[in-house]
């Protein structure tokens, strides 16, 4: 079930299409019944499903006020990505590849490739550098996230702990999560990970922590994410949604680069801690 905001925008498009030519009415009817899938189709796929030409699809996008199908497709994906249910995503399992003149191969691989390319701009952003400085200056860092976003926490926690001390992590159901609003705010940085579909429990916790006066940073996918208004800095990194389940290769790569940057800013402290960890690992024969 899509939200009222998305439904309202979709209704506008459908009404505009039905008021046009017979071809536009045909396209509108298909979109009305299959919007979740249409948002991630290529123009060739949509044309084939509807039974019209690719040129007709392009003209339809122009009639809605977009420069072309590409711009319209991106807007549909932005609207729908937080709305997709598990059953909706089964379409991707049956339609894994792209087949157009410009793009071939698996749509997940292409999407991830494009997302990874965006990392250079993210690394050069003031928000990224502000997150680095916040982590460096905090007395302790607490990572929070729920559901799919929580699966990213162990990686960031494990490796960030190698270059600085006092890094903690918590997820719903743990004592630290439940009592986090009671913790001391001074010197504490909360780093929230929140990707679609945004768990209500994360949003509610962040709102409460903001009320308590905690310093909060967020790593999310969109500046309009429900946690973004409660955090500063906010680093936005794309996730790949064109699959049965979201792919987080780009956020994981960002975390790797974030940790590297923290180590670069604190070379002596990082070197000392890495040395201590290596000595401990050897003493306890962690590795064969």
From TrEMBL:
GO terms for biological process: carbohydrate derivative metabolic process. This is MurR/RpiR family transcriptional regulator. It holds the Pfam family SIS. One of its GO terms (molecular function) is carbohydrate derivative binding. Keywords: DNA-binding, Transcription, Transcription regulation. The keyword tRNA processing does not apply. InterPro entries: Homeodomain-like_sf, HTH_RpiR, RpiR-like, RpiR-like_SIS, SIS_dom, SIS_dom_sf, WH-like_DNA-bd_sf.
């Amino acid at each position: 079930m899509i939200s009222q905001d998305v439904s309202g925008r979709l209704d506008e498009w459908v009404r505009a299409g039905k008021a046009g030519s017979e071809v536009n009415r045909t396209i509108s009817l298909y979109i009305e019944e299959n919007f979740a899938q249409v948002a991630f189709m290529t123009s060739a796929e949509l044309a084939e499903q509807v039974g019209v030409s690719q040129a007709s699809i392009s003209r339809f996008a122009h009639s809605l006020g977009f420069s072309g199908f590409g711009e319209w497709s991106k807007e549909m994906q932005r609207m729908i990505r937080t709305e997709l249910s598990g059953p909706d995503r089964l379409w991707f399992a049956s339609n894994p590849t792209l087949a157009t003149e410009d793009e071939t191969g698996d749509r997940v691989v292409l999407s991830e490739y494009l997302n990874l390319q965006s990392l250079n701009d993210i690394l050069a952003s003031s928000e990224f550098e502000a997150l680095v400085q916040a982590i460096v200056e905090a007395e302790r860092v607490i990572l929070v996230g729920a559901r799919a976003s929580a699966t990213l926490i162990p990686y960031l926690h494990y490796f960030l702990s190698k270059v600085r001390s006092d890094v903690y992590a918590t997820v719903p159901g743990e004592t630290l999560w439940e009592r986090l609003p009671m913790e001391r705010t001074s010197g504490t940085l909360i780093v929230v990970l929140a990707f679609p579909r945004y768990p209500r429990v994360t949003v509610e916790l962040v709102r409460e922590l903001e009320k308590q006066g905690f310093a909060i940073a967020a790593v999310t996918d969109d500046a309009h994410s429900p946690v973004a208004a409660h955090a500063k800095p906010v680093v936005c990194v794309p996730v790949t949604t064109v699959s049965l389940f979201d792919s987080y290769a780009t956020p994981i790569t960002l975390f790797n680069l974030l940790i590297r940057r923290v180590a670069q800013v604190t070379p002596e402290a990082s070197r000392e801690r890495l040395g201590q960890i290596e000595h401990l690992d050897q003493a306890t024969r962690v590795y064969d």
